[in-house]
Amino acid sequence: MANSLPDRTDKPLLPSEQGDAERAKILVVDDRPENLLVSRTMLDELGHQVITVRSGDEALKYLLENDVAVILLDVNMPGMDGLETATYIRMRQKSAHTPIIFLTAYVEEMHTAKGYSLGAVDYILTPVTPDILRTKVKVFVQLHLMTRQAERQAEQRIALAREQAARAAAEESIRRSTFLADAGGVLSSSLNATATVNALAQFVVPVLGDLCVLALTDEQGNAGRMAIAWQSCGDGTGRHNELAAGLDNSEINAAMQQAMASGRMVVVTEVASAPARLAVMPVGEAVPKSLELGFKLGSLAVLPLVARERKLGALVLGAGLAERRFNPDTLALAGELATRAAVALDNCLLYAKIQDGDQRKNEFLAMLAHELRNPLAPIRNAVQLLRMPGHGQAKLNWALDVLERQTQQLVRLVDDLLDVARITQGRIILKLEPVDVAKVVGVAVEMSRPLIKAREHELAVTVPPAPLAVHGDYARVAQILTNLLNNAAKFTEPKGRIALSAEEDGADVVFRVRDSGMGIPGSMLGSIFELFSQADRSLDRAQGGLGIGLTIVRRLVNMQGGSVQVYSDGAQKGSEFVVRLPRAAVSCAEPPQVDAPRRKEAGQRVLIVDDYADAADSMAALLRFDGQDVRIAHDGPAALEAARRFAPSVVFLDIGLPGMNGFQVARALRTMPETKDCLLIAVSGYGQAEDHRNSQEAGFNRHLVKPVDLPVLQEILGSTKAGSVAVSVRG
């Protein structure tokens, strides 16, 4: 009966058969219950699970979720016959290759051909002979079980392989993490760069390679300090290490240069020379040394050490010719190590730089105290001599000369300090214009001539005969050349040679200052222009100075769009400073001229306001000697009271007054009828651009920086007498 419910009742399994993984499923499809019963009875003897369904639809539903060893399919069924059912079975991937045996009461040639085309393996005529049926089904069941067993074995092998791969990956991850953790301990064990590279090179061998070269580079990118470690393969002595200043191996050096230039790893799979020893230059020695490796170097891996976009050096790994090659895992681990090593070494170098800067700062402060005390001793001696009775005119002149020289020395030291402060804070204002090279060189030579003459140097000056100009600030270009000439004079033994030349070079003008002096050590060439840096750090410091002249030179050159470089072959081999400044068209401004001070008529009323009594009294004495009528006040209220009574035409007013400062006093004076039109001069130890601007805003006509020379005072008073008072902020 085609429409009756299918018989899904299977034969109950024996307890011993339940859960048996080797029992296969046999699907019997027939619309007749009696046929299903017969088939199941005949097949039960095989000991496998027999499933019976009564229609093609039921068969397809069952096959969606189950895998069977063989299908016994009745051809003639109402609704969906056996051939159509076989068609749908073959369309499903899961059952596409399941063997199908057709059961039919008669065999037509057309049905047979179509059945075989659908993948049928056999036709069995009904009524079925039990032995024939069991024999044919048993073959396919065994094939099915063998296939399942093979699949299980394959799955087991795959699972085993996956487990082994996962275990290997975990072990590799643990090894990698342990290695990097241990490397972190090595890298953090010291802030000394040399100690760090030496310890790391030894740590790397033999985990990553048979040879490790860890090299640091200088600011010019040349290999400098390096640590070399290697694992001997045949002598049984284990690891070796060596600190070196250089390595003489063309292939290793070329690979390092390539890695440093590209910023990427470089792998050399085969070293052409395959050396068994390396020639190195030991630290502090002049004779090369040969290192016996104990193996032939076969391949290289070079990794640049980069931190904060700065190339600090290179990590070189070497492998023996036959023993090992660099695999991807090793290179990846080496890359991670190189990244961490670069950060650690950058910290070491920064720490060393901070330490060096702190030491140079302390040396500078001690040097500053020394240089400031030097002029004070002769000044005090001269003052004490002047206090002694009975000295003649010769001793008086000597004392005055001492006071003048030492005061000029103090002023020069203070000016240098102020220049550094202004330049560092970006408060230097340049007047850029065409500057005649011959004239500015002449000014620099004249300013440096006293020191050069005192040390009996031979000076050679070479300038082109044709007009030549630079685009710069006249006074600052002269200051640059003067500082370089003074530096050459100080650091050259007496009766040495100094040469200053200027020449056109494309779009630049090149100034060269050469000397035959003490030279500059190679380690100082990169830092000679830094603040507080000085080649002579000896206790006696015969050359004197604060060691900031070259810092000023570099800052001023850079501000004018130029560059400065220094060259020296080493100690006692002289030095050369090369300054490049932009060339300008030959239409040069005249150098600034200073008007000669004029002796003015007496009688001007001058008020001096300064809380430092000696400064006020000494200025008053100079102006009284010049014929002026002078009054003194030491604070703001006293100044305002004196101004009401005295009605001065000129007021020299200190800014740093206690209580009521100079700016407040100036604003009050501008509101008083007695002083609203007077010439108001700020006098201060502060002379930066902001100080000048504040003075102008407070109502001052001019801003002078202490100490103020008498000619400057005479020029101011003369301009007042002539009625040419103008607001100005020049010092």
Helix and strand arrangement:
Layout lengths: L24 E5 L3 H11 L5 E5 L2 H10 L4 E5 L7 H10 L8 E5 L4 H9 L2 E6 L4 H58 L5 H12 L6 E7 L5 E9 L7 E10 L1 H13 L3 E3 L8 E6 L6 E4 L4 E11 L2 E11 L7 H60 L5 H32 L8 E4 H18 L3 E5 L6 E4 L1 H17 L6 E9 L2 E8 L33 H11 L3 E5 L7 E10 L20 E5 L3 H13 L3 E5 L2 H11 L3 E5 L7 H10 L7 E6 L4 H10 L3 E4 L4 H12 L10
Parallel strand pairs: 1-2, 1-3, 3-4, 4-5, 15-17, 21-22, 21-23, 23-24, 24-25
Antiparallel strand pairs: 6-7, 6-13, 7-8, 8-10, 9-12, 10-11, 12-13, 14-16, 16-20, 17-18, 18-20, 19-20
Helix pairs in contact: 2-3, 5-8, 6-8, 8-9, 9-12, 10-11, 11-12, 14-15
Nutshell version of this structure?
The chain is of the alpha/beta class and 731 residues long. α2 packs parallel to α3 (82-91), α6 (193-204) packs antiparallel against α8 and α10 (437-454) runs parallel beside α11. The longest helix has 60 residues, at 328-387.
List keywords for this structure.
single chain; about 725 residues; seven-stranded mixed beta sheet; elongated
Describe the fold and architecture:
The longest helix is centred in the middle third of the chain and has 60 residues. Helix content is 43%, strand content 21%. The N terminus and C terminus are likely disordered. By secondary structure, it is an alpha/beta fold. The strands form four sheets. Strands 9-12-13-6-7-8-10-11 form an eight-stranded antiparallel β-sheet, with helices on both faces. It is built from 17 helices and 25 strands. Helix 1 links the parallel strand 1 and strand 2.
